[in-house]
Amino acid sequence: xxxxxxxxxxxxxxxxxxxxxxxxxxxxxxxxxxxxxxxxxxxxxxxxxxxxxxxxxxxxxxxxxxxxxxxxxxxxxxxxxxxxxxxxxxxxxxxxxxxxxxxxxxxxxxxxxxxxxxx
Amino acid sequence: xxxxxxxxxxxxxxxxxxxxxxxxxxxxxxxxxxxxxxxxxxxxxxxxxxxxxxxxxxxxxxxxxxxxxxxxxxxxxxxxxxxxxxxxxxxxxxxxxxxxxxxxxxxxxxxxxxx
Lengths: 119, 115
Description:
The complex is a heterodimer. Chain A is mainly β.
């Protein structure tokens, strides 16, 4: 069963508008972390934001925020005031606690969403 | 401020050839891993290591070998290259596999083509 699901293969957003990239996850481990990475066309993987399963507040990092709905097992990335440089692939990933249910603490990725920002 | 260093950046192999992708990190991270990235598939884990002398298989280990003789280095060996191994390979590290809150730090990737 897929542990990380990103249902939007591609999305468009107008420059300066906000956009939400969807991510749902599946785990029975009470301790886990959720991550978002950005991959621009140059290919490098850039860590954007982290949310822990016990965190009470949604994570924020500059223009990035994570809409964490634990009961729904969703961790959507919100980018405010989109810029042309935000055009990239975005990956949602999850890390379970090592040792729980056979987990080795590896990071599991979704298939990604390609975001295109229109001028 | 090197972080995770991967070499080479590009490589072309013929079917049946072998090669080693190098990965080194200078952050004293216990955990290291190799992923491959294929279009529409996200990143899939090939092998990982939770410390020097300890390695294990990930989701797609066939055709690859790893070793971890030092904390810093985690080379990936292709034993007999096949066209199906054409991909972009990423090495990544983090402080420890025991801390689910530690992000992976990635190298810049190796684009491998097998003809």
